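A further point concerns the way the authors explain their paired sequence and structure data. For illustration, here is how one protein appears when written out as sequence plus structure tokens:
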Amino acid sequence: MKMRTLGGQGLTVSAMGLGCMGMSDFYGTFDETESIATIHRALELGVNLLDTADAYGPFTNEQLVGKALRGRRDQVVLATKFGNERRADGSWLGVNGKPEYVRAACEGSLKRLGIDHIDLYYQHRVDPNVPIEETVGAMSELVKQGKVRYIGLSEAAPATVRRADAVHPITALQTEYSLWTRDPEDEILKTVRELGIGFVAYSPLGRGFLTGQITSPDDLVPNDVRRRHPRFQGENFRRNLALVERVKKLAAERHVTLGQLALAWVLAQGPDIVPIPGTKHRKYLEENVSAAEIALSPADLARLDEAAPKGITAGNRYPDMSTVNR
């Protein structure tokens, strides 16, 4: 596995990480045994960046990841997040960036993960009611205490990133980015590159749409959260299938899977970008990791730009877009 550097503080990670969210929440059924085996296989393949959050489950995903990493802590750059506050029953309390909550959330994550420090700690969503300087100030204190090594933000707007970075160096910004979500190309990527901040691309497979395996909303089980996402509904779904078919043809010409081509495209957007495709199955993990070896030519990239130009995807990313890019 090739390595990449996030930010200017020296954090080196595998060129591709593993998103663990779907092992415990949002995307249908779960199998702890297979999920842990998937994490172990990722480590065998050289993937060292694991991504979780206290909101996933809630709380149970951190417990699962912690269980998988017993005896393997030194092989991992472990990233988790706070800020999307949920009750134990799964109900949502909202976004919380208060300093006292930052400290309490960190203690909770450390306990559930069974570790003494978090390698990369993100604010999951920006709290509009708390100045970002206060939230990042509390995160900076955690760094000073040795409980966190590096800090990051998720789905933060360029102006917010600048204000945060002025308080404490931000190592990574995590935002959705893929062939069907190219919004970061407007301002975000330019901003983080100017500031020397790494970029972590979540949902680089378009929440599974860019694997080609979802051909109907009925392919999603009833409790799959994607059923409520605008891009997976009605006319939006049908229009987005046409996008998938165009990219699938290019993948066939390269003798790779649609998902591998989509991941190779993200990796080709810059050496400061690290995608974290999520999966809970070893076979899909292995397919994803293989994408890191695919080299795309300028002609390949031009054809992909033509097949999936920025803004072509139908529908918003979330049912409620008010918590992102702020």
Remarks:
- The CA atoms of residues 10 and 171 lie 9 Å apart.
- The mean pLDDT is 97.
- Residues 234-254 form the longest helix (21 residues).
- The radius of gyration is 19 Å.
